UniProtKB/TrEMBL annotation:
It comes from Salvia divinorum (Maria pastora). The gene is NUP96. This is Nuclear pore complex protein nup96. The lineage of its organism: Eukaryota, Viridiplantae, Streptophyta, Embryophyta, Tracheophyta.
């Protein structure tokens, strides 16, 4: 497809649309087809994005997370990690995988909304857990206490923000109930 000055993003839009539309076909074929697509100069980030959306749609959220990370869509990766992958891994006692995924996203926390309410809790939890388990190691007691204090201090703002959100949720729920009660009372008066 030729580049046209009046429509500078047309080529990229069409290619990405084709990747999304036929993702199931090209992703399940042998790796030669994927290699051929990459050989055409199509960005691997576009392939990963299409695969991430495809796996999200099919419910394989672990694979979706891998592809969201590969195409650097940090907000969506963070969301999938928190809502699906981390709880599943935690229940399966795969703590090392949680640690690896959470720390891989840590460098991009500034690009992730509500990072301080999400993956940072996992990171802080594992830092605290590991420091407690390492008490018998060669670390000095002061160093251990400093690590624990640092991990706990990262959890404090999370706790405060969750408390504020809980208070806001309570306020909104109470307001909704009051409006409902008031509306019910007005309808009884009108009868």
């Amino acid at each position: 497809m030729l580049h046209h000055e009046d429509y500078p993003y047309l080529q990229a839009t069409v290619i990405r649309e084709i990747l999304f539309q036929y993702c199931e076909v090209w992703s399940t074929r042998d790796s030669q087809l994927v290699g051929f697509i990459e050989g055409l100069g199509i960005l691997s980030a576009w392939l990963h994005e299409a695969l991430a959306i495809f796996y999200s749609y099919t419910g394989d959220l672990s694979k979706a997370l891998d592809h969201f990370l590969a195409c650097a869509i940090w907000q969506k990766a963070h969301s999938v990690f928190l809502t699906s992958v981390a709880p599943s891994l935690f229940l399966s006692s795969k703590h090392a995988e949680i640690w690896t995924l959470a720390t891989s996203m840590e460098d991009y926390e500034s690009e992730t909304e509500d990072w301080d309410l999400g993956a940072v809790i996992s990171v802080s939890f594992y830092i605290l857990k590991n420091s407690i388990q390492e008490e018998n190691s060669t670390m000095t007691e002061l160093d251990t206490l400093e690590n624990k204090n640092d991990a706990c201090s990262k959890l404090e703002p999370c706790s405060q923000r969750w408390q504020k959100r809980s208070q806001l949720f309570f306020f909104l729920t109470a307001t909704r109930d009051a409006v409902s009660l008031f509306t019910c009372h007005l309808s009884e008066l009108a009868q």
